[in-house]
């Protein structure tokens, strides 16, 4: 459990540092730069998640003696624990980020979405209704819950795939002597 928690913490820390780097580089201050921030952040988070989930499952596997099986279920379990820790910590970070570090971030996202709707010709009461919904969803609390659920589902799918490659089959038993 400690190994999985450690690697979940490392994923959350690396993702948080990536978000802060994007913030300090000005990618979270302008709707025009938001698309680049989404791409950099998404690809960076994917690379971080894959890398440290693989390393975490390998570390967990190395803790299990060679004489014991470390099959798909155990590899998946390790990946799920890593994912759970990372998702919970990222939900907390995203709340702190949106509420205290960059409280204008959600306004940038909302403005970006409203601009896209306007470009599609959505105006008037439909645009006002969409804005009200966006303002509710894009606030620190609901966004953190979304991060927790969506992040865990995505990381779970990654764990399903990674576990298939990192399982260790049951060791062959030597023939019995008669």
User: What is the share of helical residues?
Assistant: over 70%
Q: What number of domains? A: 1
Strand percentage:
under 5%
Task: Note the overall shape.
Answer: elongated
Give the distance, in angstroms, between the N- and C-terminal Cα atoms. Answer: 42 Å
What string gives the helices and strands in order?
HHHHHH
Structural class determined from secondary elements: mainly alpha
Q: How would you sum up this structure, described in words?
A:
This protein is mainly α and 178 residues long. It is built from six helices and no strands. The longest helix is centred in the first third of the chain and has 33 residues, at 31-63. The chain is elongated and about 85 Å long. The mean pLDDT is 93.
Summarize the structure.
With 178 residues, this protein is mainly alpha-helical.
Produce the secondary structure layout.
Blueprint: H1 2-24, H2 31-63, H3 72-101, H4 105-119, H5 125-137, H6 140-166
Helix pairs in contact: 1-2, 1-3, 2-3, 2-6, 3-6, 4-5
